[in-house]
Amino acid sequence: MKVYTKQQLALRNGQDKPEIWVAYKGVIYDVSNSKMWRNGKHYEHWAGQDLTDELPDAPHNNRVFEKFMAIGQLE
Fold first, then answer.
1. Residue 3: exposed, middle, or buried by beta-carbon count in 10 A (0-12, 13-18, 19+)?
2. Deepest of 20, 41, 53, 57, by most Cβ within 10 A of its Cβ?
3. What is the pLDDT of residue 48?
4. What is the pLDDT of residues 23-60, one digit of tens each?
5. Is there a contact between 73 and 9 (Cβ–Cβ < 8 Å)?
6. Cα(44)–Cα(17) distance, integer angstroms
7. Torsion-angle region of 40 (φ positive above 0: left; ψ -120 to 50: alpha; else: beta)
8. Which residues are within 8 A (CB) of 53 and not within 5 positions of it... i.e. 6 or more apart?
């Protein structure tokens, strides 16, 4: 898998580039096709970030990432 920096991930926020990506536990997922991530925002979370520390407060568990394609690793 390709390795991306936090700066590269930050550009995939649905605003700067058309891709909408998020990271979880070092893996970057493409959530561009998710209705829940329109415009790069999902409730109080923004795309282009590592959401590892945010997940414990979410109403779902880490299995939510299984429906998205892993496209890289976070450096």
1. exposed
2. 20
3. 96
4. 999 999 999 999 999 889 888 889 999 999 987 777 67
5. no
6. 20
7. left
8. none
